[in-house]
Amino acid sequence: MSREVMLPLLAQPPLSDAQTWVDEAQRRLDDLKQRAAPPAEIEAATFATKRANMTLSRAQTYGGREAFPVELHLLQIGPAVLAGTEGEPFAEIGLQIKARSPWPATWFGGYTGGWAGYIPTPDAYPQGGYEVDTSPFAPEAAARLVAETLAALEDLRGNAAAGEPRRGHPAQTGKVQ
Length: 177
Known about the structure:
Blueprint: E1 2-8, H1 15-34, H2 39-62, E2 67-77, E3 80-85, E4 88-89, H3 91-100, E5 105-109, E6 118-119, H4 130-134, H5 141-161, H6 170-173
Parallel strand pairs: 3-5, 4-6
Antiparallel strand pairs: 1-2, 2-3
């Protein structure tokens, strides 16, 4: 079974600002390399240029949008269900899903069918850090992903109990499996 889940996004910078940051970071890096600056300075400028490019990519992909669709996939094998989504959800999201799943054995993970970015838990945002700083998703995205995954697990359980095909039902998934 698969379904689309709309996750709320953070506001992204305007493309023009993001492009300006990339251009400025790249000029600084090029200048440091040309002057044979100390390796530590070049390394720091390389990091800043990489981050600026990541910001530009997020602005291009997510800018001007309030939510972004990620695909949720579920596969039942006997009493177990494998569930996964695009991106990298924080471990606590998977633990919440496993604890509340209607299935005796549930596995939840990311990197399934694509990459949409990190999906942090709300408590991670005040702490910041690489994953939070580079995530396009709003703090509410984690709760939405948990709720939508639990709803999909319940639907899958209902399909299995009704003897419907376990590969998904087009009326529920929106696509033929």
